[in-house]
Write a structure and sequence with these properties.
alpha+beta
Length: 461
């Protein structure tokens, strides 16, 4: 679709032809159900909601669309310009004759149409190339922000699932301590234990209630974090699989992941595109010392109607080529050239720093995943050991060789070990997603495959 766009500049109406591509808005398709209160059953549902609802992601998409318009703006310097001019004036004058001075007035009208087309404008052409490179850099930045959205979603979801498990463990611990307190009271009534055991059990019960309150508060805060991203109020009805398959990250793979990160990291890709843009800007600034050539066509019509003296009316037409050369602009050309070079050098330094950071982060993430595998296996074993220790302590308490404090401590160790095991699994998933992001692999396909990591939750609270 084409439009004629005009603007008033002094007494000139400047017009240009602009092309507008009509596309669908950035807003996503309307939802087919009320996501506010329907519990999501898959991770892919949350990912779709996040892309539709996250305000930060919406802002970044709009900013990218605004940046894309710069190419059209720069190309307008290479396009045809149509200028319309119309002047009308009333002239009052005193005309001297041989015998007297006579007053006269007349109307002077002038109409003009001018068409210009640049034939040679090297700076403008290279600035268009620089803008295209900057748009490509912004595209990489947008994709990187999309991966960051996925990381924020996973972090919020993991925080919510972890908080939910903490509530489950805190409530289970509270019930276990309550049973222990009741048993201790019964044993005290028949004289099998001292009053101090009852007081210890009662103190443990009070602390367990506080832990439940803290865990429930943390759960509500985690739900708010997920709601900000997805606009979902309901609790997800899924959790990590109990038999989650862990990837094998060995020492040899570390260098492979680092190399992959350096080759495919989106932030580094954006820096490369920015450096390309600076190279075009440097060439454009060098071309500022060269003349520009424009073709023009001019038509004018003037009419002067006088009361005294002769009247004049006439048309004129001209077609030609104009050359403009401005070799000196008070030092601006050289200063701008040096400024662009310094900005390019700063971008190179930033790229080197980013490469170091990507190398360090990818290496650390691989090491965290290696440690995470061992941590999960060790804590799974620790749960078995803690459960056996609790059973032995409870048996010793019944036989009189252990007191109630030993039992309460053993119970607390068991629940803490179970909580740590769950936390290790959630942290492993979060680190794995971060590694995919730093290597540029966090695509829609990869994110949708995360559904296979989850299963329906036994307890959704």
């Amino acid at each position: 679709m084409h439009f004629l766009i005009c603007s008033l500049k002094k007494n000139l109406i400047v017009c240009s032809i602009a092309s507008v591509i009509v596309t669908s808005p950035l807003s996503a398709q309307p939802l087919t159900h009320d996501k506010q209160n329907v519990p999501p059953t898959r991770f892919s549902d949350l990912w779709r909601y996040a892309q539709e609802s996250d305000k930060q992601w919406l802002q970044q998409r709009k900013e990218f669309e605004a940046i894309r318009q710069q190419e059209k703006i720069d190309r307008s310097n290479l396009g045809t310009t149509l200028a319309l001019n119309a002047d009308a004036s009333r002239v009052y004058a005193d005309v001297e004759t041989e015998t007297d001075v006579e007053s006269t007035n007349y109307t002077d009208k002038t109409y003009a149409v001018q068409l210009e087309q640049p034939l040679y404008n090297a700076p403008a052409w290279h600035r268009v190339k620089a803008t295209k490179a900057n748009i490509e850099a912004s595209r990489f930045d947008l994709n990187d922000q999309r991966q960051l959205l996925a990381q924020r979603l996973v972090q919020a979801l993991v925080g919510l699932l972890n908080a939910r498990s903490e509530v489950t463990f805190a409530r289970a611990e509270e019930k276990a301590i309550e049973r222990q307190f009741n048993q201790t009271e019964q044993r005290f009534e028949v004289g099998l234990v001292a009053k101090t055991d009852v007081l210890d059990a009662e103190a443990a019960q009070d602390l367990a209630k506080v832990r439940v309150l803290d865990a429930e508060n943390a759960l509500q805060q985690a739900r708010e974090e997920l709601r900000i991203i997805t606009s979902v109020n309901a609790m997800p009805e899924f959790d990590l699989k109990s038999n989650l398959t862990l990837l094998d990250f060995n020492q040899k793979q570390e260098s492979q992941w680092v190399e992959k990160s350096l080759n495919e990291n989106l932030q580094l890709e954006a820096q490369e595109a920015r450096l390309e843009a600076f190279e075009h800007l440097i060439v454009a600034q060098r071309r500022e010392w060269m003349p520009t050539v424009d073709a023009f066509a001019l038509y004018s019509d003037s009419d002067t109607s006088r009361v005294v003296g002769s009247s004049f009316a006439g048309e004129s037409r001209s077609v030609g080529v104009g050359l403009t050369w401005i070799p000196f602009q008070g030092g601006r050309l050289k200063a701008t050239y040096q400024q662009i070079q310094l900005q390019r050098d700063a971008t190179l330094a930033q790229q080197a720093l980013l490469q170091e950071r990507v190398t360090t982060d990818s290496r650390n993430l691989v090491r965290d995943l290696q440690t995470g595998e061992q941590r999960i296996a060790s804590r799974a074993t620790a749960i078995t050991s803690a459960r056996s220790a609790l059973e032995a302590t409870e048996e010793g308490y019944r036989l009189g060789t252990r007191n109630v404090v030993d039992v309460l401590n053993a119970q607390q160790i068991l629940f803490r070990t179970q909580s740590d095991y769950a936390n290790s699994r959630y942290q492993y998933v979060q680190d794995l997603v971060s590694l995919y992001a730093i290597t540029g692999e966090l695509t829609d396909q990869q994110l949708n495959e995360l559904d296979a990591w989850f299963e329906p939750a036994e307890d959704t609270l």
